[in-house]
Amino acid sequence: MKNETITRVTLKTARKGKTDFAYLDSLTDEQLRASIADDPDWAGNEEIDWEKGHWVIPEPKKPISIRIEPDILSFFKEQGPGYQKRIQAVLRSYVDQMRAKKAG
Fold first, then answer.
1. If you placed Cys at 76, which of 6, 38, 40, 83 could pair as Cys (CB 3.0 to 4.6 Å)?
2. pTM over 0.90
3. Given phi > 0 = left and psi -120 to 50 = alpha, else beta, which region is 82?
4. 85 vs 15, 46, 66, 70, CA distance in Å?
5. What is the mean pLDDT of residues 3-20?
6. 82 in a domain, yes or no?
């Protein structure tokens, strides 16, 4: 790998995003609403009352080593990036169901 393709980031390094905040600040509320309405990812979320939202800070994950059968690992990896999060979601679902069964 060539040296110029490596980007080093530390906690002390300021990170600059790609958001054009000056452009966003220049938009009117009507323009923002129209832009949001045109976003296909927004469909179905129009009626959410964001005023009632609250922060949820997840617990830090604990790194472990686990042995998984190759076909199971391949199944999750074939779905693209984020396979570890999908495995976590399956485990979370199982735990929640088992706890509900035990409580009910």
1. 83
2. no
3. left
4. 25, 27, 14, 17
5. 75
6. yes
